[in-house]
Amino acid sequence: MASEFPTRPAIAAQQLAQLRRLLAAILPANRFYRQRFSGLDTHLSSLDDFCRFPFTTKEELSADQRAFPPYGSNLTYPVASCTRFHQTSGTTSSPLRWLDTPESWQSMVESWKKIYRLAGVRPGGRIYFAFSFGPFLGFWLAFDAAQQLGCLCLPGGGLGSAGRLKAIIDNSATVLCCTPSYAVRLAEVAAAGNLDLRSSSVRSIIVAGEPGGSIPATRRRLEQLWPGARVFDHHGMTETGPISHQCPAQPGVLHVIESAYFPEVFDPGGNPVPPGEMGELVVTTLDRLASPLLRYRTGDLVRVAASAPPCVCGCHDLALAGGILGRADDMLIVRGVNIYPSAVEDLLGGFAEIVEYQVKVDQSASLPELTLRLELSAGCADPKAVLQRVQASLHAAFNLRVPIKLAPAGTLPRFEMKASRWLVANRPHRCANLLPPTPSHS
User: pTM of the full predicted structure?
Assistant: First the structure.
């Protein structure tokens, strides 16, 4: 099976050629990177030479777009040649505007088509997109890729959850695209309306936007709520496009699409991370020439798989064990304990009685306080016992005693896009400095 995939030497040779092509395209025309690389030897004899290039950060891109509104100077071609506009959510900084030429757009569509194929989607499939189309990149790409693959594309914009469920059933959708949280929400609405999801034709749920697709407890819950469906995870960003896909043989492992991205993983000291350890994912877009990113600090925390390639699936692309483990700026220190939201989600996902939850963190005092609100299922026979079990599990996992409160049914927020279950009070906005400051070459 391994012979079907490019070997590591073949991948490296192709990436070196792509990086040389990228530099040849952007250096004469792209003001942002031309200034950043001024005085730098940009000749690449090997991939190791690329390590002398500076990192790119979201803060630098935001500052560039403020200085040169509205699109900034990270443009390789004139705006008149661009046909696609997208924008980030702006959850950690000012929203970034992103432009693409037809060629750059198609390069990302090809990556999405790969995701579909590995998820088992074939021509003739019926894909339901359960979201409202806005300025975000991902689902527009997914829609175009599905259309090119020969699938029936079913848009869900402008409908509530009940209307979307009806459309999924009426149109015999075989694939559902949404966030993990919204797949749970749809199942909740189905149960409230006495709709048995065993009657649906959905066989694949392709999720992104949150770490949930690679969290075992969340995966199990989704596959229980949608009987007969398999969860398939991937991740990406508006600035980059689709970066990774779930390993077909190992749920919970993501492979970086190295035909389109050059990935690196670094520890806080700026050193490459050895297998088995956690670090920040840094990527370079190899084919998105219109608005490229070179050595971009994604803020995503990952763990390089301990086993050497090839993976059991035969793929030699970089494998990330556990998928996206969290965000560098999401980590909270509560009474000296490092806590990542994904770890809490995995723990709470093991309780079938929990319908939804919300975490409040108050850092106004000398010792930060964390409070958990839980919404339990209507059929829960002993809520007090569930709270005691949850509290014991949290103490065992984090050595913290966390106050837990019950929330009345239906009162905690539900989410269509990225879930926002963590409310942090009295903490100024910050972006974690996991890597050293980017050196200036201008």
Answer: 0.82
